[in-house]
Structure prediction request, 326 residues.
Amino acid sequence: MPASVAIIGAGIAGCALAEALAAAGHQVALFDPAPGSGASGNAWALLHVPTGAGLDTRLQRAAAESAQRHLRQLDLKPGVEMWVEDERIAAVVPAAVHTRLLQRAGPRLQHIASSVQHIRRVGAQWCVSFDGGAQQRLVEQVVLANALQAAQLWPVLADCLRAVRGQVDQFQTSTAQPPGVRRGAAGYAISAVPGQWLVGASFQPDRMDLQCDAADCLANGARLRGLLALDPQAALQHLGGRTSLRAVTPDRRPLIGAAPAALGGWTRDGWPLPEPGLWVNAGHGAHGFSSAFLAAELLTALVSDQALTLEARLQDALRPTRFGRR
Ligand SMILES: Cc1cc2nc3c(=O)[nH]c(=O)nc-3n(C[C@H](O)[C@H](O)[C@H](O)COP(=O)(O)OP(=O)(O)OC[C@H]3O[C@@H](n4cnc5c(N)ncnc54)[C@H](O)[C@@H]3O)c2cc1C
Prediction:
């Protein structure tokens, strides 16, 4: 049965989900006063398919493979909006990804350029208050895709989401390295224009300010010299920087699935009870351009009450109710 769904937040998590829900026949209202203004708003984003057998690596691989499948369908312009280095490493222009996703969602999607003030249950529905509380919309289901701010609308999530500030910088090198994507233990560098590189990213837990930082800029310059094997003294011209906040969970896995109930209560196994009709799509940490597509697949199946395609153990590792066991 098609449902009316409010998605709060139009970063990569909200946009990928809006496209998937609309494709499944649902009516989607996507709320965001400034789409792409959060962590999803960098000039480029790296995608990486990890190898290995541990649970987290398998999760990240399932996410990266889902992203590869979906991104292929977006007809991103090679070398301009998407750079494929090899079968495991690629980069995309987030703004182009968001635009294509929202275009593909078509007439079942309505974008409401407003911030949501609060949500509350009204019988079997949800009332979403927006526009400074002046307007309200009744929907059957709500998805919190607004990163750290999810905890402002649903306070029981406060213990599961923490801010980790990060900065990327753009530099012009004096030597003309061929464009491409470089990835190392310390970070990544992406270039589609000879000599111009986006490099990042710093990782500063619990810092919330969004001013670009000179120390981060120096560290990103050093990162770039390392990734390109440049002389440590090689001149770099700084073209600009951008700072934003990652929403990170205690186990670094995203929160994808039913929200924990507001009034507490536990299942027979001692897990927090889920809140009917309220979903979370947040905590994408440092890999949102991979995990948002897996999240979109999973949440579309859950909202549509359909069988899930992901292995049960992996899905369980993403449950927003996995914290706070009795
Ligand atoms: C410096 C840095 C570099 C990164 N590099 C990469 C990378 O290369 N590859 C990668 O995969 N990931 C990367 N990440 C991580 C990635 O950016 C995030 O995981 C991803 O952007 C999270 O997407 P999101 O949609 O959950 O959140 P966001 O992009 O933060 O979007 C949240 C949205 O919610 C909206 N919102 C908030 N509150 C409300 C409200 N009350 N009502 C309506 N709307 C609201 C905001 O306006 C915002 O648009 C990086 C992160 C940082 C900080």
Observations:
- The first strand starts at residue 4 and ends at 8.
- The longest helix spans residues 55-72.
- The two ends are 35 Å apart (CA to CA).
- The pocket of flavin-adenine dinucleotide is lined by residues 8-14, 31-32, 34-35, 37-40, 42, 45-46, 115-116, 145-147, 149, 166-168, 200-201, 244, 246, 282, 284-290 (CB under 6 Å).
